[in-house]
Amino acid sequence: MEKEPVNVPGTETVSRNFIEMAIDQDIKEGKTSQVCTRFPPEPNGYLHIGHAKSILLNYGLAQEYGGKFFLRFDDTNPTKEKTEYVESIVKDVEWLGAAYEGEVRFASNYFDQMYEAAVKLIKKGKAFVCDLTAEQIREYRGTLKEPGKNSPWRDRSVEENLRLFEEMKDGKYADGEKTLRAKIDMSSPNINMRDPVIYRVARMTHHNTGDKWCIYPMYDFAHPIEDAIEGISHSICTLEFEDHRPLYDWVVKELEYENPPRQIEFAKLYLTNVVTGKRYIKKLVEQGIVDGWDDPRLVTIAALRRRGYTPEAIRRFMELVGVSKGNSSVDYAMLDYCAREDLKLKKSRMMAVLHPLKLIIDNYPEGQVEYLDVPNNLENEELGSRKVPFGRELYIEQEDFMENPPKKYFRLFPGNEVRLMSAYFVTCTDIVKDEEGNVTEVHCTYDPETKSGSGFTGRKVKGTIHWVYAPTAVSAAVRLYENLVDESKGVYNEDGSVNINPNSLTVIEDAKLEPDLGKAESGDSFQFVRNGFFCVDSKDSQPGAPVFNRIVPLKSSFKLK
Ligand code: ATP
Ligand code: MG
User: Fold this and answer.
1) Within this chain, do residues 394 and 329 fall inside the same structural domain, yes or no?
2) Which residues surround ligand 1 with Cβ inside 6 Å?
3) 45 exposed, middle or buried (CB, 10 Å; 0-12, 13-18, 19+)?
4) CA of 241, closest atom in ligand 1
5) What pLDDT, in 10s, does the model give residues 32-52?
């Protein structure tokens, strides 16, 4: 197995990955004059984090070698393909910053050339029209232990094959009645080489070519042709295609392309505690278990964007993950780590109280409002400061007050003094409870001498808590997330359904936010003091009534080694 690259955070990659080494070699040997890569999605669903890896890998290689990167839809299989998916994929690739060369390309634009390529193979005696049914083809194929048997139609003349293939195209045969097969070797140890089907009859309307064709090329035949037509130098794909590479090479060789593309495989990216794989995500969407393809608990690119992850964070994550030849799962916490690191210096640190408790400063003049200067980011002065209203009635977090605190609790409790962030010291003097004994109000007195920024040094307090001025507080829904599945409890139930983590979504209906957050627009993100990074939901927010999604909490167990 190839060595994995060693990525040291904050430095350049210190060793080249196996793909780079292969490309270096091809350039050295004169096999490659210009590096050209592509991302070839099938438009049958939304892209997910795994695709982001492929996109950034292909785009990154093109950048690194001063080459080109294309976006090409692999739309040779019309049944599952939809225009909605095409549009979402283009948007996601652009959002990730992978600038593709020229127009978006479609494999279906090459159907004419693929047909010609098939004719060429027939003329070379390298393809034949076969009348076996799908089931018979399977029987004749043999097994891993047993060689296959030649089709009785294998020795048709070139003329007959040409005529029959044309008739297939002209709609003379029913779906499945005939196929075109490559003539390779029925006793090959590689089953993919046992006279694979390269064209089938199928009356299906295609999203791009409509009803023009009733025969469609198979993926293994179409893909190398698409690559060769576009001048792709390195066709990077995932490991499941390794066994198909001999067929890829066969197609390219028999069609005599001048600069044959080279296929190189790498391991798919998997993440812990989430659902990757379009098929599985699609099921969750169709069953209404999640709120569409962009439900923030998913790892589709649309979901990551809606949740508030940045392209920079995703790029950094991919750098840390590296490229490998062995399948493994990456800890989801690493993605969170990258998001946090990226947002830390970029976002303003705002005050938002998720579980509000009233705090009343009895000696603060009723009706008086002060506008306090609050720095936006203590680690990045460039973000400046803002004015935040302060007065007699505030909200604080319920967890910042305890009537009977344990030792080492430095927040508010009867008799204790704390700092209200960017404001004054307050001392708890009294509490009010409801009939059930819950604390509903905390009463305090404040010391005007202790105003933040005034240079007061008279005494120190151990706790600082955040707050929001009640009369101008903005009420908002805030959503907290955990991973969609908890792998330690099993990903699937007995009936095959996904075992959804019941805590994957918690909605706080009435959080209290400082007034500036009421003006936030869709997609804006912030740090909420102590509670994490949050992004305005793009689907459910109304003007003046934002809904916030938590991107990541501030702390995690993940440590970069
Ligand atoms: P899925 O299994 O999720 O449906 P797919 O491989 O069928 O994915 P395609 O649209 O065919 O999806 O893939 C486009 C490209 O993305 C291919 O080159 C594929 O190898 C790559 N790709 C898909 N999943 C991953 C992944 N988890 N990690 C890295 N690359 C991936
Ligand atoms: Mg696929």
Assistant:
1) no
2) 40-42, 50-51, 53-54, 237-238, 268-269, 276-279
3) buried
4) 20
5) 999 999 999 999 999 999 999
CB 234 within 8 A of CB 261: yes
Q: Looking at ligand 1, which residue's alpha carbon is closest to its atom 4?
A: 278
Q: Which stretches in the chain have pLDDT values below 50? A: 1-8, 10-11
Instruction: Tell which of 233, 266, 299 closes a domain.
Output: 266
What tens digit of pLDDT does each residue of 249-291 get?
999 999 999 999 999 999 999 999 988 888 889 999 999 999 9
Task: Tell me if 428 sits within 8 A of 401, measured CB to CB.
Answer: yes
237 and 117 part of one domain: yes
Tell how many helices (H) and how many strands (E) occur in the chain: 12, 27
Are 424 and 539 in a shared domain? no
Q: 120 and 199 in one domain?
A: yes
Residues 395 and 412 in one domain: yes
pLDDT digits (tens, 9 = 90+) for 63-92: 999 999 999 999 998 877 688 999 999 999
pLDDT of 207: 84
Q: Which of 42, 49, 54 to mutate to test the pocket of ligand 1 (most atoms within 8 A of CB)?
A: 54
